[in-house]
Specification:
- The structure is a single chain.
- The protein is an alpha/beta fold and 347 residues long.
- It contains twelve helices and seven strands.
- Helices cover 51% and strands 10% of the residues.
- The chain is elongated and about 90 Å long.
- Bound molecules: guanosine-5'-triphosphate (GTP) and magnesium ion.
- Guanosine-5'-triphosphate binds next to helix 3.
Length: 347
């Protein structure tokens, strides 16, 4: 199981606060925007690949969840519409995924301990009028690493799915996988014809090179068909996501290091600054001139100015630098642990 990146981001936030007045504004701003961007890409916080299954009623979404899970998680039925609330099948112990499921207001959650780094959200159908589907899909999409759109051989051209949803979402093409389900009901030539027709419709929807797979999630006889190919496609996305995480972890670690490195950079030598501040302590005007000369700004300056006479300003300064160094060291350890888990997860 891959670790959540949140603890590393929390430490980077702490380092940003602790480096106020010690590190340069440019490095502090860069670290803050990295932390902000990483938090917004919530899908990258977790090392799990998160997949939503969407499509029309009866296309076989819940059956596909069961095929991916290898056991019956979701109830399936010939009666329509069947699933009326989203259901999530997620690995236990991944805080980022649990937080995501909660933020999406998904109450039906089944946890699994499988080795698979897969989390699947089975969405209600998109064609019945009883739900506010658009807002559900819009809330869900940005959180997903992949969305499998399931079609059945009878209703695959249903304009409501294409017009209402797909044509509006072409910018998500790299995240979408299209699955033509129930191919056990067709002969080979029919599968080819329907695949070609559906591929053509998807291009008309605005997708330039849609990934389309033919599957049977719950054939009348025998084992699922094409689900292994679908899993292989998800696995490729997981590998790409892991590579992204490796880079992100390295970026977080480097941003922390820059803050602590900055804290040791002086305009003069450290001894010069310490001496000058010590000598000026107690004389507000001279102290202010020294602080200007060494470009000491922000809360550190305020602390040094107000501590005159009581605490040694140089001790104060050293203490703050030690605090920052300790936070950045903890950040380094946390990043190394996450990177290790990430590397193990690829085997
Ligand atoms: N022959 C065949 N039947 C399938 C296949 N996949 C699903 N079905 C059947 O299609 C019906 C609908 O399947 P579900 O998985 O409940 O469909 P759903 O998309 O979840 O439907 P809603 O929850 O109403 O949105 C069920 O009777 C399934 O057994 C398949 O690959 N082949
Ligand atoms: Mg269902």
């Amino acid at each position: 199981m891959l670790r959540d990146l949140t603890p590393a981001l929390d430490l980077l936030d702490l380092a940003i606060v602790a480096s106020e007045g010690l590190a340069s504004d440019a490095d502090r701003d860069a670290a803050a925007s990295l932390a902000h961007a990483a938090r917004r890409r919530r899908e990258y916080l977790s090392g799990v690949i998160v997949v939503a299954i969407a499509g029309g009623t009866g296309s076989g979404k819940s059956s596909l969840l069961n095929a991916l899970a290898g056991r019956e998680i979701a109830s399936t039925s010939a009666l329509r519409p069947h699933t009326d609330k989203p259901l999530a099948w997620i690995p236990t112990g991944d805080d980022a995924i649990s937080a995501m499921v909660e933020a999406l207001d998904i109450d039906n959650v089944v946890e699994h301990d499988e080795a698979s780094s897969l989390a699947v959200v089975d969405l209600p159908d998109l064609d019945s009028v009883s739900h506010d589907h658009r807002s559900l899909v819009e809330a869900t999409l940005p959180q997903m690493d992949a969305v499998i759109w399931v079609f059945d051989p009878v209703k695959y051209h249903d304009p409501s799915i294409h017009r209402e949803f797909l044509t509006e979402m072409t910018e998500y093409e790299s995240v979408f996988i299209f699955a033509l389900n129930k191919i056990d009901c067709l002969d080979e030539a029919e599968v080819e014809a329907v695949e070609a027709h559906l591929g053509g419709i998807l291009k008309l929807d605005g997708f330039s090179d849609p990934e389309l797979l033919a599957i049977a999630a719950a054939p009348t006889d025998g084992e699922p068909i094409g689900v292994a190919a679908l899993e292989a496609s998800l696995e490729r996305r997981l590998v790409a996501k892991r590579a992204d995480r490796v880079k992100l972890i390295a970026d977080i670690r480097r941003a922390g290091r820059r803050l602590s490195a900055d804290a040791n950079v002086w305009t003069g030598t450290p001894d010069d600054a310490y001496e000058a501040i010590r000598a000026a302590t107690g004389d507000a005007e001279q102290l202010s001139e020294v602080l200007d000369r060494f470009e000491i700004e922000g809360p550190l300056r305020a602390e040094i100015e107000s501590s005159s006479g009581e605490t040694d300003p140089v001790d104060l300064w050293l203490r703050r630098r030690a605090e920052l160094a300790a936070i950045v060291a903890a950040l380094g350890v946390t990043c190394a642990e996450i990177a290790n888990d990430n590397a193990e997860g690829t085997t």
